[in-house]
Each structure stands twice: as C-alpha cells, then as structure tokens.
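Title: Prediction job returns without error message
Component: structure pipeline
Severity: low
Priority: P3
Assignee: unassigned

Description:
Job completed but the reporter wants confirmation the result is attached to the right record. Sequence as submitted:
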Amino acid sequence: MTRNHEPRRLRVVVVGQGYVGLPLAVRAAEMGHSVVGLDVDAGRIKRLVVGESYVEDISDRRLAPLLAAGVYRPTVDPSDCDGFDAAVVTVPTPLRDGAPDLSHVEDAARTLGRHLTRGATVVLESTTYPGTTEEVFRPLLERGSGLTAGRDFHLGYSPERIDPGNPSWRLENTPKIVSGITPSSLESVRNFYASLVDTVVPVASCKEAELTKLLENTFRHVNIALANELAIFAHDLGIDVWAAIDAASTKPFGFMRFTPGPGVGGHCLPVDPSYLSWRVERTLGQNFRFVELANDVNNHMPDYVVRRLVAGLNERGKPLKGSRILLLGLAYKANTGDARETPAARIAELLTGMGAEVQAADPHVLDDVHPRAAGLEGVRRVEVTPGLLRTVDATVLLADHDAFDYPLISAHSLYILDCRRRLTGAHVESL
C-alpha cells in the first residue's frame, strides 16, 4: 500500500531510543506527530535532551528543530506516556544462555498497560519468535489496562528493517511489513505507518510478520556462513574465493552476492536466527539444522581470523606473542558505530590472551558515545598514522569504513590481513 492520504496528528510513544527507536521517533515527529521517546538509559536521554545523537543515521541537525518545537520529547519518566494514541516498542531482545530474553518487552508492556486507553494502538517492533505478540505481549497489556486487545484497543506487530549506515535504504523508503490481531487492528497499524513510510505491506497475522523478520535474517545468516566456509576451504585449496564470487556475481539471475568476513555482528545475525531455532525446538522438538550450522560457522570466524594471523606472522618469522597488532574497524559493519556483538571483540580477546599487544582504530566507535561496546573497553585506541603503521607487526582490517585512508594503510603497513578485500599488494593477504 502506498501513502495517499493526509494523516491526523497523533500523540506517539516510542519505547526504546536505540538504533531502531530513535530513527522511528524522529521520523514520526518530522511527519507531524507529537512524539515521546521513552528509554530507561538516563545517559542516552541526557544526550538527546540537549540535541546530541548517538545514532549515525540521525544527525544533531535533525534533532534540533524537533526539540525546539516540542514535537519530540525524550524522557525516562513513564508518566509521560499518558494519553498516547499510538505506542511502538523497539526494545532489545537478547539471548541469555541460548534462550530469548523478553524481559525488556515485558517491562515495556507493563509500562504501556498502565497508560493504555480505549481506541489506542500498540505495536511491537522488537525482533522475537512467532507468537510473542499474542502470547506474551498482549496478556501483559490487557492485565495492566483492564482492556481487551482487538475490542478496546488495537494491537499489531511490525518488524523493524533498520540497516544502520545504509545511505540508500532508510526508514521512510524501505517497505514496512504490518500486521494486526484483528482486521481493525491491522487497519489502524497500517494507517499509522502509512503516515511515516512510502510503502506499507500488510500480512494476515502477527505470527507471519514475526516469522518474516526471522526469515530475512536467517536467509542472510545462512548465506554469509556459506561464503565464510567457502573462504576457509578455498584458501586451503589455493583458490581465490573473492575472484570466484566476483565471477559468479556476473550472473544476472539465480545468484545473490554474499562475501566472507571476520564474523557477524549487530543484533540481527548473531541473535535473530537463534530465536527461530529455539522456537522450533521448544514447540516441535526438532532441530533447525541450517541455523545451527550457520551459527557454528559464523561464530568461529573470529577464531579463523586469528589462526590466519598467526600463520601469516609465522611466515614472516614472528611469533604472535609479543607482536603489535593493529585492528582497523571495531564496528560489526562498515560506516557505522554499531559495535553490538561485534566479532572484533572476540578477535581482540583471543589476541590479547595469546600475548599480543592489541591496538585499534575506528572513527565511528567512540568511547564516549558507545561505552557499552561489549569486550572493547580494554582495547587501546590509536590514530592511524604512517609512523604507527610502520611500527606494528600486523594490520588487520575488520570493518572497511570509507573514512580509512586505504592508500596510506597499504603504503606503510608491513603486513596486512584484509578481512574485507579493500587492499592490494604483495604484503596483503585477503581472508
């Protein structure tokens, strides 16, 4: 469905002001809604109140006029949710010991339930297993409000499709999947998102919408695992896997390009497919073999990177212990500061544990902005200079940010392990 009508101004609450919630809140405010951005992280809210964004896709310049006009109000106070017309939950859903942790979703439902009124619309966007909206989220909303979903208020699920750092596909031009527990709920959810994005795609049930998100990420996870395992075997066979991928990519049908890397990160790939695997095993008593195999391959890519680095140093007569290693890129992907579940953390941990002196550079992952980048707190940050590059024993490119000066890196590094194939030269090895 394409937006073709002028929406009414709504009082909107977005619970969670991270990589998903902040862009959504800002977009809703820019499109004429009055928005409350609720988050339990007081540090985040303090930054937002003074117009400082910690998400690359949202600039300080976009925040300023919204704050000045009072159409976007960041807060830690749940009472600011009073009287909302629409609420969207975009909180984290991590894995704990292999099982989904829905505590943040449950807390959000309890909070909204206390402020829910007749006729309001509530949407869950957090990635989760099929059935969560109706089996977990709905009962908590009903218990807290004394209202009945589908009769007294509208309820639906809409999977987030945020891709941090993607300049082409943004919230507003990425088709939005929407669902509702009843036809009237679906219509209300669809109308709300139609005021924010160009294209809305309704599906028949919340479970289908929940599965859609897991399908999208499992598809990527499995294909990246295939590329990673091919890279390992191709190297051992003396074949340039990157050349083979380039050649296969010329096929105009039946092939989609996926490339190897040092591992997967962010919330999506290391976590989301396991939600589906957990649900299948718990409900059906069967193993989701594709997901488990992809997990095994992708989770061990940091170990493979370290093994390749050890071999490369040995060929140059250097042991890893005592060597100075420079890691370039701590984020899980290029051109973003998102270091959630980044493979760089595991690589740094392994290298440090084996006696290497590890340094790192990343223009996007900043200590004062991303202080909770798990596993990276002890990694010493440095600036990339010709002098530094000449004094380290190995440079490892993990996230290929455009901000890096690749000619300078290539010219002054003694040995490079390139996990993203951005560099060339006799002293460069590609993953």
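Comment from assignee: result matches the submitted record. DSSP finds 14 helices and 16 strands in the chain.
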